[in-house]
Design brief:
about 150 residues; alpha/beta; five-stranded mixed sheet; 5 strands; globular
Length: about 150
């Protein structure tokens, strides 16, 4: 019984918990207390069998600005801390790697379409929103990458 959490970090990112190829829980990126609650609830739901949290690690390229570096470092630090607190392993994965394995690319609509194909019961249109959440879609796909890699 393996459970996986996918994290697309950032203010427009998302969190996703999958088990046996099904999306169990998913949400837009909450505040720090919400991140802690999500992981705590996932540990309880899985009865401690969370295999790993997979977080997208965005490397710095020539177009990456200082604010993006600070934001990425902030989320990485938060999730490393929460993993330690809850006793869950964390694995950083580059977007290039997980997208190649899953079949996604830079197009956010492609991520939404793939996520809806792999997890047909998922609703990526959240209340009071007019567009589907690509951050949650990518969090689901990152978790699916972890399941496929069985790390």
């Amino acid at each position: 019984m393996k459970w996986y959490i996918g994290v697309d970090p950032g203010n427009s990112g998302g969190l996703a918990l999958i088990h046996s190829g099904c999306a169990i829980e998913y949400e837009r990126m909450p505040n720090v207390a919400g991140m802690d609650k999500f992981i705590r609830n996932a540990v309880v739901a899985s009865q401690g069998f969370i295999t790993c949290i997979f977080e997208e690690h965005k490397g710095g390229g020539p177009q990456t600005n200082a604010a993006a570096h600070r934001s990425a470092g902030r989320y990485q630090g938060i999730f490393e801390t929460l993993c330690c607190v809850h006793g869950v392993k964390m694995h950083m994965v580059t977007p290039q790697l997980w997208k190649r394995i899953i079949g996604a690319n830079k197009d956010k609509q492609r991520s939404i379409t793939l996520s809806e194909q792999i997890f047909p019961t998922v609703n990526l249109l959240f209340p009071r929103c007019t567009i589907k959440s690509d951050g949650v879609a990518e969090a689901l796909l990152i978790a699916e990458y972890g399941r496929r890699m069985a790390l």
